[in-house]
Amino acid sequence: MASTAAVPFWRSAGMTYITYSNICANLVRNCLKEPFKSEAISREKVHFSVSRWVDGKPQKPTIRSDTPEV
Amino acid sequence: MFRQATHRLLTRSTTTTTTTTIRRVFSTEVATDASSGDAAFIESWKKVAPNIDPPKTPSQFMEPRPPTPSALPSKLTVNFVLPYAAELSKAEVDMVIVPATTGQMGILPGHVPTIAELKPGLLSVHEGNDIKKYFISSGFAFVHSNSYADILAVEAVPLDRIDPAQVQKGLSEFTQKLSSASTDLDKAEAQIGVDVHSALNSALTG
Fold it and tell me: Got the DSSP string for B13-73?
């Protein structure tokens, strides 16, 4: 019982909905006028650290950040 | 997995007279009056611990769903929310036009319950003679049977905050990227860029 619904072009290219939605939102934010643009960009900045766990022990964490290292 | 689905569907419809089928409750049939608590739970609690008051369940702390009125309501109640703010919260309006992937969709009070995925485009809220327009990047619109509409968007900006020069620049940049893209992913990203910028363009000019 294969589904025959047409898939959107981004889904067939391997992109998920969240990635698509975030790309759209970033493009819209880049087209804003000045005070709103910097507000929107600073609002969406993220800074987090991720570490994989192997055998119950955390490995070296990687830091993902939009704020430049001082 | 799918072979079992057809088998289950067939057995459900044909064996209702011979065997008892498990009937699943639709969400619209669930009691919306939460203050009385779940009757079955309270009954079984009383059998086990008659001297202790039954504890409250999570649904008793929640506001019950607004009931579906029997007559057609005159206004649509809209909750238009973004991840960081609520643009409209329970606002009573006459009509909302949302940019669904299947085209511009108008939502009036008494609209059939719908779930619509939104594409980048114009959202307009009509209240009397005022029309408020927003450009939405993408999101979803849920219309419920009690004339409540929930519109969720990732980014929504009033049209006067959009810079037309940036839009033109972005459009030409992505059109160029689309023609020179090699991998599927690059093509998809460039296509998204072209779609968003042309939607922004038509929102500004239309």
Answer: HHSTTTSPPPPPPPGGGS----TT--HHHHHHHHHH-TTSPPPPPHHHHSPPPPPPPSSPP
- Interface residue B191 vs chain A (CB under 8 A): yes
Task: Profile chain A (70 residues) by mean pLDDT over runs of 10 residues.
Answer: 75 92 92 91 89 92 79
Pairwise CB contact (< 8 Å): B163 & A31: yes
- Tell me what ipTM this predicted complex has: 0.79
Q: Does B201 touch chain A (CB under 8 A)?
A: no
Q: What Cα–Cα distance (Å) separates residue B191 from each residue in A1, A8, B73, B178, B179? A: 31, 11, 42, 6, 10
Residue of A nearest to B168 (CA): A31
Mean per-residue pLDDT, B61-67: 80
User: B137 vs A25: CB contact, 8 Å cut-off?
Assistant: yes
Q: Report the C-alpha gap between B195 and B199 in whole angstroms.
A: 6
Scanning every residue of chain B, which has its alpha carbon at the shortest distance from the alpha carbon of A3?
B2
- Best residue in B172, B196, B201 for a mutation probing chain A (most A CBs within 10 Å): B196
Residue A5, CA distances (Å) to B58, B79, B104, B123 in order: 38, 30, 21, 27
- Mind telling me how many Å the CA of B163 is from chain A's nearest CA? 5
Q: What is the pTM of this model?
A: 0.73
CA distance B72 to B101: 27
